[in-house]
Automatic annotation (TrEMBL):
<dbReference type="Pfam" id="PF00646">
    <property type="entry name" value="F-box"/>
</dbReference>
<dbReference type="InterPro" id="IPR055357">
    <property type="entry name" value="LRR_At1g61320_AtMIF1"/>
</dbReference>
<dbReference type="InterPro" id="IPR006566">
    <property type="entry name" value="FBD"/>
</dbReference>
<dbReference type="InterPro" id="IPR001810">
    <property type="entry name" value="F-box_dom"/>
</dbReference>
<dbReference type="InterPro" id="IPR036047">
    <property type="entry name" value="F-box-like_dom_sf"/>
</dbReference>
<dbReference type="Pfam" id="PF23622">
    <property type="entry name" value="LRR_At1g61320_AtMIF1"/>
</dbReference>
<dbReference type="InterPro" id="IPR032675">
    <property type="entry name" value="LRR_dom_sf"/>
</dbReference>
<dbReference type="InterPro" id="IPR050232">
    <property type="entry name" value="FBL13/AtMIF1-like"/>
</dbReference>
<feature type="domain" description="F-box">
    <location>
        <begin position="19"/>
        <end position="73"/>
    </location>
</feature>
<protein>
    <recommendedName>
        <fullName>F-box domain-containing protein</fullName>
    </recommendedName>
</protein>
């Protein structure tokens, strides 16, 4: 009996020491820990010990997510917990981040009240995902908050964002807009012109069917991400002299106008069926390629059976391009044309992950594609071939590169496909002759 009591006393002492070590951490560290918990659990920490009693009221990162509510019948209880928590916070504690994700059980009339609460505490980062159909009356203060640095706004597809006449977010640097529809061209113009310090803009899955032109004109913008627009009757115009990163993914449009992108460092372009299905694809693709021609790094994904993009006359000169990552799907257009127009290219990455079984060159006897690109003979030192399965055309590409890359130093091939064939493919690649004596071949 005495031995049992000693063991129990030792266990209690160990548990108390562990609790003391946790409670002894600075408030800043403890607040970072509990802010990761669901809101209901944050409130429950107040019963752990006297040390924790009022700690939850100092939380500056607030996350309200009704997906954490298991049953809809518990909705009223959850909303009451949210409001008790908000009004229990210390009044002298600001809000760094306020995240609201709702659409399952939260009543629409409470949403703007909670947003207004965050705005009243000088919120710096506002993340709103409102999946309530027809919710259009967003709190006016969102468009005039002087403390906002980051704004993420995603709404239900049926919601229409109408930007007020007076719109000004003087300190906003990052803006994400997703799953929404702007009321007209004027709303978009007011939106971007009111962000005088904007550096990063994301537009994702927005509906532009009621717009003639998506115009992004901002002198401070450095990063721009466009993806998944709905509707193809609009034009895209971008005027951003300080833009360093441009990402364009799978959107449809009837025209491009990319003006003064001379500071562009990196471009990531995914061209899929939507763009290829446009009425005047040739001029649209030409405008896109011309607009990004000053880029130093280019990630280009082509997922179509049409070789029209990389044909003579459509591809401009890329005088600054040193890194090219070319991912090919469907069939491979004349990739050598792109190399021929990139005289400073140093690193080339070819990804065959989505290549079709019928992949073949569309030479058609043109002399332009028979010439070895100058960069391949005098500049390219690193080549990586990804998702290599040893298909006939893939093997022709690898053989061509090793045969013509005169200053090549590193050649890496990452194999794909069935395991039993990899050993055979590896031997075949190593057996290929290479013109560069410095070339080191690595098979992964």
């Amino acid at each position: 009996m005495a031995a049992y009591q000693r063991k129990r006393r030792f266990a209690n002492q160990t548990r108390d020491k562990d609790l003391d070590r946790l409670s002894g951490l600075p408030d800043k560290v403890l607040l970072q820990i509990i802010s990761l918990l669901p809101l209901k659990e944050i409130v429950r920490t107040s019963i752990l010990a006297i040390r924790w009693k009022d700690l939850f009221s100092l939380v500056s990162d607030i996350n309200i997510d009704d997906n954490n509510v298991i049953r809809k019948s518990l909705g009223n209880g959850y909303m009451n917990i949210v409001e008790r928590f908000l009004f229990s916070r210390k009044r002298d504690v600001g809000i760094d981040k306020f995240r609201l994700k709702c659409g399952k059980i939260v009543d629409p009339f409470r949403i703007n009240g909670w947003i207004q609460y965050a705005l009243g505490y000088h919120v710096k980062e506002l993340d709103l995902t409102i999946g309530i159909k027809g919710f259009n009356e967003l709190n006016f203060g969102v468009f005039t908050c002087k403390t906002l640095v980051i704004l993420r706004l995603s709404m239900d597809k049926g919601s229409i964002l109408s930007v007020p006449t007076y719109f000004r977010l003087p300190n906003l640097k990052v803006l994400h807009l997703g799953l929404m529809k702007c009321s007209d061209d004027g709303s978009v113009d007011r939106l971007f012109s009111g962000c005088i310090s904007l550096e990063e803009l994301h537009l994702r899955n927005c509906e532009l069917s009621n717009m003639n032109k998506l115009r992004v004109c901002n002198a401070t913008l450095k990063k721009l991400f466009l993806s998944g627009f709905m509707g193809t009757d609009h034009e895209i115009e971008i005027i951003a002299p300080n833009l360093v990163h441009f990402s364009y993914y799978y959107t449809g449009t009837k025209g491009f106008s990319l003006i003064n992108l001379n500071s562009l460092s990196e471009a990531r372009i995914y061209i899929g069926p939507y763009l290829f299905s446009t009425i005047d694809f040739a001029s649209t693709a030409t405008a896109l390629m011309n607009g990004i021609s000053q880029a130093r790094s280019l990630y280009l994904t082509l997922y179509s059976s049409k070789p029209i993009l990389l044909t003579p006359g459509l591809v401009p000169q890329f005088p600054n391009l040193t890194y090219l990552n070319l991912e090919m799907g469907g069939c491979l257009p004349e990739w050598k044309i792109l190399l021929a127009n990139s005289p400073c290219l140093d690193t080339l990455v070819l990804d065959f992950e989505f290549s079709g079984s019928g992949l073949e060159s569309h030479n058609n006897g043109r002399d332009e594609t028979e010439k070895v690109p100058g960069c391949l003979m005098y500049k390219v030192k690193t080549i990586k071939v990804l998702s290599f399965q040893g298909k006939p055309f893939e093997s022709q590409v690898v053989e061509y590169l090793l045969k013509n890359a005169k200053v090549l130093e590193r050649f890496t091939v990452r194999l794909s496909g069935k395991k039993r064939l990899r050993t055979k493919i590896s031997k075949e690649v190593r057996a290929l002759s290479r013109v560069s004596k410095k070339c080191q071949v690595t098979i992964i």
